[in-house]
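Appendix C. Worked example: P-type Zn(2+) transporter
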Amino acid sequence: MEECCNTKPKKEHQHHHEGHNHDHDHSHDTGDQSVFRMFLPAIISFGLLLIGIALDNFIKAEWLSGWIRLVWYLIAYIPVGLPVLKEAFESIKNGDVFSEFFLMGIATVGAFAIGEYPEGVAVMLFYSVGEVFQAMAVTRAKTNIKSLLDQRPDEVTVLKDGKPQIVKAEKVNIGDIIQLKSGEKLGLDGELLSETASFNTSALTGESKPDTKTKGEAVLAGMINLNTVSEVKVTTAYKDSKLSKILELVQNATAQKAPTELFIRKFAKIYTPIVVFLAIGITFIPYLFVEEYQFRAWLYRALVFLVISCPCALVISIPLGYFGGIGAGSRNGILFKGSNFLDILANVQNVVMDKTGTMTEGVFKVQEVNFNDECNTDEILKLVNALESKSSHPVATAIHEYVGEVDHSILLENAEEIAGYGLKAVINGKELLVGNFKLMDKFSIRYDIQTENIVYTLIAVAYDNKFVGYLTIADSVKTDAQLTINKLKSLGVKTTMLSGDKSSVVKHVAGILGIQNAYGDLLPEDKVNKVKEIKAKNQTVAFVGDGVNDAPVVALSDVGIAMGGLGSDATIETADVVIQDDMPSKIPMAINIGKQTKKIVWQNIILAFSIKAVVLILGAGGLATMWEAVFADVGVALLAILNAVRIQRIRF
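Step 2, the predicted output written as structure tokens:
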């Protein structure tokens, strides 16, 4: 997947006032202040309010009247009301007049104007308490996401002249040797110098199963050394490490908004001004129709209406639900590049997958060599090995492992890779072709092999315009591939396998797994046409591949899922969803996370609209007081938040 349609998230610089959707994060507050200090203004206000209500209704203190009563409730109002009024003023300065701060400000100031002091304080008090809970919930969701991935140690032990020195991780240079003790986290990507070492890779893959590495293999930042002291040669700068890129990706994931989230933002911008004008109408229009019109009574109804109408429950609980979904994915080694991809996966109808490296291990082994008797098998294999050294394809690796070291004395001229066919070069003035049998057909090489009956992958070889013979190469199916297909079927998702490998091999693997449709011998443009056929039926498509090839198919699909994100930087850069280990069973898990997230978001939308609609009608009819209004606003918001954070506890 070398490129993808609008998949790379851009950093979103969120100002405190972005339309109606003000920033409920307040993470700076939760970081610098204790929970008690966050609630302190509400505690002071609550105490004064309770005393005031007791003096008003039970003790019936005569001295608490007139301006003294007003001052008492003003003092109770200021700790919770002043910050909100200040936010309302800032919103207006930034051009966002109809913010929820403005609604709360009008409602509570209006309550004071008509002498309903306790209710004015109560509305602002419960609103402020709700804001603190919302801030805590959002911060927790963000912290959960960050803590899952921000596993980079700040300091590492570097060997300088054989002596260990503790150095800041960002100051370590490429080529430096890091000493990693048992239980320590690796701070930078590198190459293992020790003969062998076992690592816990859960920070990157979500899997805690130890992964044993051998000398020369890549090891990545965030991995934890499990046994003896190991040495690692740094190959990547701190800021360019795989973990740094993953962390940045997840932090920026919220920049890609889901359609539901975008709709709620737009809705709030239109809805809030309408509500304000309706409240004005509730205050004055009855004057034209009601005989005994009382301004104070109708103003009170309008103020109740304003409090109920605040869309806070929607504009916070919906993004919070998507935060939770992204966090749940990260915890399981699945990276979503935006909440919009959660929505797409929730409704995906087709999963189209590559074969090699996706449903099979991608580790090929040469099974047999069938060359003509008249040719020197060893010499031809040396030539083939030299040419395949120019490719990074798994087939090339299999041939290299079978033949051995590359003979660098062999001079290759005009070596080139022909996409979908194989490799071509000139050696000693003679043309060498190594690839599939379509390559033989392309260059009019005659052969008498019945390839259809051979299940294994075939690599045909021609030298000096003559067919030399072929190698058979086999790959093994991944252990959880069968479980993956079964789960996709249970979710009602259709499966299709597309591969450039020969049809008999593709159909054989598809038959073992129970994949509904399978097509082999495909060139990149053939894969595009197959996906177009599916999309022509107005069906959504997720394409799953190794993340580096098949760019046209990925661009065409609704969501691109990359397998084995640890293997390729290009994968992390270009995929819509990255599965950080090689487990295809994470595909149905990603779909399930999308479905659960969408379900919770819609539960919150229905809950908020239903309760608010009922109480709005009651408020306009004079049957609801400020207390019901507080429940309809803050109560619904808190219920929605509790529902939204629930996704972080679901086991997928």
